[in-house]
């Protein structure tokens, strides 16, 4: 696998990649994000977890500047997402839940399109497109029509699209939903390799607790528009164990809770109430349609 290059090494990069203070976003009567405070450190792989409807996508879209910031403050490497949209966009790569590759184009044409949209200098474009495709192991398939790609290949292509501008912050909204275990691992291995090579920050939403545990440095558990628990997966599991021991609901010999236990503890009855489960049918169906 070729590591992508061309990312600006920024020794003077602020220590905070994403900072949300009191972020609130409402759709009519629905308070999707409700006074969200969040701080993602530069270089971290940070997982935003939570049941369906917790407000993860809405929060992420505010950070990307695709949605405005009606209340509160969002900063990306110190730039205000409400006032310095272009400065923020230049730092970002975004892989949304919805299909962002055009089936009528080849893989290379799709990535080239993103290179143009993200204003990659013309003289560098072909090289950067080739690097991005190589970074996700799609060099051999680059000139095939995207319609011939598997779900996993499409996801890797979308990753290449987001990487072609050498972002300092890569945002991924459920990057592995609907993929088989091998394709899921492959997507994560490519994300991890690029991050190692470039030092970029990764902010990811996922419903897969095993992925969060394995690949995220820290996670935030979001519920009803706010963060209810924050820490490394190990810290969160240990904290739940302590709470259970203190409450007498678990004994010393009981196994340490899983991240899924922590998730259930935070979301509580809300999961049943809102019909959300980790591998929610709605999300899977969305992806089935997306790659079909
Ligand atoms: N365009 C919209 N119009 C109206 N309500 C919306 C819209 N988008 C999201 N919502 C509502 O805002 C709340 C938060 O949704 P959001 O998609 O941000 O949650 P999520 O945590 O990303 O969920 P999922 O895990 O299903 O992607 C939900 O109650 C949702 O129904």
TrEMBL record:
Key words of the record: Antibiotic resistance, ATP-binding, Nucleotide-binding, Transport
Residue stretches making up the ABC transporter domain: 18-249
InterPro entries registered for this protein in UniProt: AAA+_ATPase, ABC_transporter-like_ATP-bd, ABC_transporter-like_CS, ABC_transporter_ATP-binding, P-loop_NTPase
Gene Ontology annotations for the cellular component aspect, listed alphabetically: plasma membrane
Organism superkingdom: Bacteria
SMART domains: AAA (SM00382)
Keyword ATP-binding: yes
Membrane topology: Peripheral membrane protein
One BP annotation, GO: response to antibiotic
The keyword ATP-binding belongs to this UniProt entry's keyword annotation: yes
Location within or outside the cell: Cell membrane
Major site of localization recorded for this protein: membrane
GO function terms (MF aspect): ATP binding; ATP hydrolysis activity
Family designation: Belongs to the ABC transporter superfamily.
Protein name: ATP-binding cassette domain-containing protein
Provenance organism: Streptomyces paludis
